[in-house]
Design a protein that fits this description.
The complex is a heterodimer of chains A (143) and B (157). With 143 residues, chain A is an all-alpha fold. Chain A contains six helices and no strands. The model of chain B is unreliable at 142-157 (pLDDT under 50). Chain B has one domain (2-154). The chains are: A mainly alpha (143), B mainly alpha (157). Chains A and B meet through helix 1, helix 2, helix 3, helix 4 and helix 5 of A and helix 1, helix 2, helix 3, strand 1 and helix 4 of B.
C-alpha cells in the first residue's frame, strides 16, 4: 500500500463530485463522460455545442495539468498496441451498451442511489479486477 | 453564452479532479483493481469523495423546480436491471482493467499526444460508433430504439 494517496485522491474525488453537481445545478445535466462524448459521434440538432464545450473543458484542464502537474499525465503502462486497441473498443462499446461509465454510473448514478448504476459499477469493478489480476499474475503485468 | 461557459468550466474542474485524484495514471488504476499484490486503495477515496459530494449536492439541487439556467432536470428514469446494462458494464470493466483507462482520463491524457493514449481514444470512439451503428440497425423499435441518451428522460415534476 506504499502508493496509497488518500488525501489527494479524496480531494480529487470531491472536485469530480463538485463538477458533476455544477452540471446538474446550472445546466440540469448528468456529467456522464461516455454519454457526453459518445453523443458527439451521433448527429442531432442543437445537441453538439454543449458536448464539445464540456470536452474542451476536459482538454484545457489537461493542458493546465501538463504544465503544473506533469506527473499526473505520465502514461507508462506496459501494454502492446493490440491490447490498447482491444481495451479502447471494449471501453467504448461497453460504456454505450451499459448506458454509462465510471463518471455517469460510478459518480452521478451511485450518488443518486440509482439501482442500475450500483449494479453497473459493481459489475465493471468486478470484471476490471479479474482482468487486472489476470494480466498481472498470469502475464507478468505486460500484455 | 453563460450556460456554455459553465459547462466548459465543469469539464475543466472535472479534469483537474481526475488528475489530482490519480485517475489519469493507468498504473494506479490497475494497482487498485488488482488487489492481490501491493494494493493501492486510492480509488476508494476518489469514489468516496465524489459520491458523497454528489449525493449531498443533488439532494439539495433537486429541491429546485429547474436548474439555474431554467432547464428541467434530465435524469435517467429507468429502474430495471437488464442484460445490456450488465453486459455493457462487464465489457467496459474488461477494457478498463486491461489498460487502466476509462473515458474521462483517456480524453484528458490525450493532450500529451502519447501514441498509446491516442490509439486508446480512437479505439474507444470506434467502439462507441460501432454500438450506435449496430443499435440503429438491429433495434426492433421504429425509431431505431432508445439510444443510451434517450434513457435520460426529463424528470416529471
Amino acid at each position: 500500500m506504499e502508493n496509497f494517496t488518500p488525501v489527494a485522491s479524496l480531494v480529487g474525488g470531491v472536485l469530480i463530485g463538485l463538477a458533476g453537481a455544477a452540471m446538474l445545478y446550472f445546466n440540469a445535466k448528468i456529467a456522464g463522460i461516455s454519454g457526453i462524448f459518445g453523443g458527439l459521434l451521433q448527429t442531432r440538432k442543437n445537441d453538439t455545442l454543449w458536448r464539445l464545450l464540456f470536452v474542451a473543458g476536459l482538454l484545457c484542464g489537461g493542458i493546465v495539468i501538463r504544465i503544473f502537474y506533469p506527473e499526473a499525465l505520465d502514461f507508462s503502462v506496459d501494454r502492446s498496441m493490440p491490447a490498447i486497441i482491444a481495451a479502447g473498443l471494449l471501453v467504448g462499446f461497453g460504456a454505450r451498451l451499459g448506458n454509462g461509465c465510471t463518471s455517469g454510473h460510478g459518480v452521478c448514478g451511485i450518488g443518486r442511489l440509482a439501482p442500475r448504476s450500483i449494479v453497473a459499477a459493481a459489475t465493471f469493478i468486478i470484471t476490471g479486477s479479474i482482468t487486472a489480476i489476470v494480466v498481472n499474475q498470469l502475464f507478468g503485468g505486460a500484455i | 453564452m453563460l450556460p456554455n461557459l459553465v459547462i466548459f468550466l465543469s469539464g475543466f474542474v472535472f479534469s483537474i479532479g481526475l488528475a489530482v485524484s490519480g485517475m489519469t495514471q493507468p498504473g494506479k488504476v490497475v494497482s487498485f483493481l488488482d488487489f492481490i499484490d501491493n494494493w493501492d486503495p486510492s480509488l476508494v477515496m476518489v469514489l468516496l469523495g465524489a459520491v458523497v459530494t454528489y449525493f449531498i449536492s443533488q439532494r439539495l439541487i433537486l429541491k429546485r423546480e429547474h436548474s439555474v439556467f431554467g432547464e428541467k432536470f434530465q435524469l435517467p428514469t429507468r429502474m430495471d436491471i437488464d442484460t445490456p446494462l450488465v453486459a455493457g458494464a462487464a465489457l467496459f470493466g474488461i477494457g478498463w482493467g486491461l489498460v487502466g483507462f476509462c473515458p474521462g482520463p483517456a480524453l484528458v491524457s490525450g493532450i500529451t499526444g502519447n501514441p498509446q493514449v491516442l490509439t486508446f481514444v480512437l479505439s474507444m470512439s470506434l467502439g462507441m460508433y460501432l454500438f450506435s451503428a449496430l443499435h440503429l440497425r438491429y433495434s426492433n423499435e421504429p425509431d431505431g430504439g432508445a439510444g443510451p441518451l434517450d434513457a435520460i428522460a426529463v424528470r416529471s415534476a
